[in-house]
Amino acid sequence: MALLPQSGQQRTWNHWRLHTILLTAVIVMIYPLIWMVGASFKPENQIFTTLNPLPLHFTLRGYTSGWTSTGTSFTVYLANSATVAIGAVLGNLIACSLAAYAFARLDFAFRKLWFALMLGTLMLPFQATLIPQYTIFFKLNWVNTFLPLVVPQFLATDAFFIFLMVQFIRGIPRELDEAAAIDGAGHLRTFVSVILPLLRPALITTAVLTFIWTFNDFLRQLVYLSNNTRYTVPLGLNAFIDRASGSSYGDMLAMSVVSLVPTMAVFLLAQKRLVDGVANSGIKG
């Protein structure tokens, strides 16, 4: 049955209906964030009394007292998270790019089998390997240090980023490799001089996602870190509940807002590159 052309009034009505639905969805999604920011400026006894995110009595007490109320400065938590996140970013950039080049460009025995096994690790939940990994790191005396959170990233253990870079490298013409080989370049020089510059969007995507996921990770850091001075931001926020049994939500919400700043800044600065990297790799969400 042929569709009848819409009148101008009907198109206007459909336009407003669509935008109303989208606006409602946006409000539902960002309301928790708006409520958290508003509640961080409320007095402690008014946080849970209303759903209105706007504070009736504005106060900065959560930000001034929350910074040190756990006994350790929140600056320490931020510095610890930054150390772990930057170490993980460097590890993933170096190790995953090398592994991806090997899978995409080199011929070695059972390459397809190793690649399939690597992809198979994507199906393994972290909880399945938690106990064996903890046992290994405990025997290495690495527990309560940052090493279990950083060193594995230098061993190309993140299959998702390897796969992302492999897809990206496969889109780079092999003629460039052959031209480099004619100039006498080996694999290492070809990788550094030809592949890496063209791999920049995928590298930026890897760096941004690794930073955000590591900065916000809770379970892995909870397992390996037990000293308050080594706590990262998620563990520091958890300490507010442990310390006061729910009586310091104002401090916790204020520091939660502070903890959003690094990841939001990284995301906003690299948003365009992040989209380009995912789109050009051929991986669709």
How do the strands and helices of this protein lay out in sequence?
Elements: H1 8-39, H2 61-66, H3 74-105, H4 111-120, H5 126-139, H6 147-150, H7 159-170, H8 174-182, H9 187-198, H10 200-216, H11 219-224, H12 233-244, H13 249-269, H14 271-281
Helix pairs in contact: 3-7, 3-10, 3-12, 7-14, 8-9, 10-14, 12-13
Characterise this structure:
- The chain is mainly alpha-helical.
- 69% of the residues lie in helices and 0% in strands.
Q: From the alpha carbons, calculate the radius of gyration and give it in angstroms.
A: 24 Å
Instruction: Report the β-strand fraction as a percent range.
Output: under 5%
Q: How does the major sheet shape up?
A: none
What is the helical fraction, as a range of percent?
A: 55-70%
Please report the total strand number as a whole number: 0
The 3D shape can be described as flat
The chain-level structural class is mainly alpha
Listing every helix as H and every strand as E from the N terminus to the C terminus, the arrangement reads HHHHHHHHHHHHHH
Mean pLDDT rating: 87
**What is the overall number of helices?**
14
Poorly predicted residue ranges: none
Q: Termini distance?
A: 34 Å
